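Bench notes, afternoon.
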Amino acid sequence: MRQTKIALAVMAMAAVLAGCSGNSGKPDAGDQTIRVKFASQVSFGDSLSDLGTYAVGGVKAMGGGKYTINGASGTGPEFSGKIWLEHMAAQFGLPAPCAAMTGLDGDASKNFSVPVTTKAGCYGYAQGGARITNPVGPGHKLTGSPLGLLTVPVAQQVKNHLAAVGGKFKGDEIVFVMAGGNDLLFNLGALSAAATAAGTAAGTTAFANSLISQLAAGTTNPQAAAQSIGLAMAAESAKPTKTDASVVAAAVTAAVMAGNTAVAAPAVYGPMVAKAQAEATAAGTKAGTDYAAAHAAEQVVAMATAGRELVAIVKNQLLSNGAKYVTVNNLPDVSTTPSGLAQSAANQQLILAMVKAFNDELTKGLAGIDTVLLIDVFTSARDQSTNPAPYGLTNVKDHACDLSAAKNPLGSSLACNLNNLKPGDVGRYSFADDTLPTPYNYWLLARFVSEQMVVKRWL
């Protein structure tokens, strides 16, 4: 029964989009007129709404430019190369939307340095890597990425649009906002890096302590030997040319000089090294896990803050400047993406908590505002992940693009196209890469947004 209801709902959404060539899916029987005639479409956000900010230089040469399967083939939505905003504009009878800014600020030797250009009349401000208020997002040159993504934050995107149109919205635009995913990914990356550093430090210490103790045990004065062995290991570790083998050799040499001549044989010190490595791995894993657990709550708080920041942008930069039709998509459940599914159970729970903290702030902060339509993408995406068949999805766990270095140098849907897909029929996969949708899934998103706009009586 539940799948039947879902299937009927999907059919209803299809009927909504079927009117994009002229009539809309107004719910009143027999009346197919468009309730609101939008004069233009404006969009702010991140890679989920990026219309081609980076379709330049080396990215364009790879056949990429948008965060999906790039390039068009056939007549269906599976390989249209379109994201959800392009379907929305077509439904409103508006020109195809375009990126307001293009360029790259990366490695010139890889053709990732392309002057930033603003496009007059283009109101697609969303950029891959963009966060809500922080200008440094994933892929920005300050993160060490050779791509040099621009990652202009949403707060600045809105300012850029207001500067382009005289400081005010006219009130006849449909404004789409979808952001927050990069704040989540950036915070998770920072937590992972810090946890890894804590684990590495603990593992290094555990390895040294274990090896020193074992090597010193066979000397006449273990305490003095341990000190000399430790000093020898520290001195070797400080050298820029040091290797794991050279550090072990320095420790063994110091032990032999302290009187434990037996350890000079590899057959003797080899098992000692293996034991030290095992203890180091155990200590490092525990330290990293403990660090992540101790700081997990901070990430949830950070996402709640990001949610409040987006609410403030909607209220203080959009609505207060004349926007009357603002659609805000909340975050989908990132824990059900291929990237999320590859995480530990604890990390999946953390990701879910971060997403919910962000979405809860949107729900609370935008409640009761008649000029704002909050789209519950989270619930829709979770239903797709557990009940894919009614949506026509054939795979909700794997990515459609071949992300190997040989096929896709960026390892991202940004460089994914019809020539570097995985073998087989991947057209109705949910995901193009580890987190971002295929054109078919973008089409599903457009249908869902359209259906909610019909309910809101904006369509």
